[in-house]
Specification:
The longest helix has 25 residues, at 93-117. The model has no long low-confidence stretch (mean pLDDT 92). By secondary structure, the chain is α+β, with helices and mostly antiparallel strands. It has two domains: 2-80, Glutaredoxin (3-Layer(aba) Sandwich); 93-213, Glutathione S-transferase Yfyf (Class Pi), Chain A, domain 2. It is built from ten helices and four strands; from the N terminus they run βαβαββαααααααα. InterPro entries: Glutathione-S-Trfase_C-like, Glutathione-S-Trfase_C_sf, Glutathione_S-Trfase, Glutathione_S-Trfase_N, GST_C, Thioredoxin-like_sf. This is Glutathione S-transferase rho.
C-alpha cells in the first residue's frame, strides 16, 4: 500500500513533518522517501518541480494523486485509510468542532512565528527596523498567550484526551517554537503539551534528523 507513495521532504519543515507523522499514525510505513537539503536548493530541483511546480517541500504523491499541501495530504490519508492505524477525527461533535478550530487557527500562530524568526533573513540589514522586530515580538507574544490559555483547558491533546488530526498538524509548529528557544517557564501549558507528545511513537520516529545533530537556537528566548 505505502509502496505507491512518495514523499520528498526537508528536515525541520513543519509541513513535511505533518505528513510523516500522519503516515506513521495510519501505519503506512515503507513509502518511498527522499530527504532533500534546503540550503543546497535541492527543493528547486526538477525532481521536485515535476511533483510540486511551486518548488517547495513537501512534495507528496499517493498513487496517482499529488498532494503537496500538508493539510490536504493529511485529510486525504485520514479519509482513505479510516479503518487503518489510529482514527484521528473524533465522532463527538464537540471534539470535532474544537479539532477543526485549532488545526486551522494554528496557521495564524505559524505565520506570526515565521514573521519574527525570518525577519533578519528576509530583510537586508540596512533596511531592518527595531520597531518592526518589536511589533513582531508583540504579535507573537499575544498569540502564544491565546494558545497557553487554550491548552490550560484541555486534558493533554488539543481536542480533549484523544490525539487527533489537530495534534498531527499543530505539534510540529509547537516543537519549532521550543527548538528556537521558547521559554518553558513562561509558557508552562505549551511546554506540557510539547513534552507529553514528543515521545509519541509517530513523532519520535519522524523527529527531524538535523535537530538531533545540531544545537537548538535562542531566537525566541525573550518572547
Amino acid at each position: 500500500m505505502a509502496k505507491d507513495m512518495t514523499l520528498l521532504w526537508g528536515s525541520g519543515s513543519p509541513p513535511c513533518w505533518r505528513i510523516q507523522i500522519m503516515l506513521e499514525e495510519k501505519q503506512l510505513q515503507g513509502y518511498n522517501q527522499k530527504l532533500l537539503n534546503f540550503y543546497k536548493k535541492e527543493h528547486k530541483s526538477q525532481e521536485v518541480l515535476d511533483m510540486n511546480p511551486r518548488g517547495q517541500l513537501p512534495a507528496f504523491k499517493c498513487g496517482k494523486h499529488i498532494l503537496n499541501e500538508s493539510y490536504a495530504a493529511c485529510f486525504f490519508l485520514e479519509n482513505q485509510y479510516k479503518s487503518q492505524g489510529n482514527k484521528l477525527i473524533p465522532d463527538s461533535p464537540d471534539a470535532q468542532a474544537l479539532m477543526y478550530q485549532r488545526m486551522f487557527e494554528v496557521l495564524t500562530l505559524g505565520q506570526k512565528m515565521l514573521d519574527l524568526i525570518t525577519y533578519n533573513f528576509r530583510v537586508p540589514e540596512e533596511e531592518r527596523h527595531d520597531s518592526a522586530v518589536q511589533r513582531n515580538k508583540e504579535a507573537l507574544t499575544a498569540e502564544l498567550k491565546l494558545w497557553e490559555g487554550y491548552l490550560n483547558k484541555t486534558d493533554c491533546c488539543l481536542a480533549g484526551k484523544e490525539f487527533t488530526l489537530a495534534d498531527v498538524l499543530v505539534f510540529p509548529g509547537v516543537a519549532y517554537l521550543f527548538r528556537f528557544g521558547l521559554c518553558s517557564e513562561r509558557y508552562p501549558a505549551l511546554a506540557k503539551y510539547y513534552t507529553s507528545l514528543k515521545d509519541r511513537p509517530s513523532i519520535k520516529a519522524t523527529w527531524p534528523p538535523t535537530w538531533q545533530s545540531t544545537p537548538a537556537q535562542d531566537t525566541l528566548k525573550t518572547i
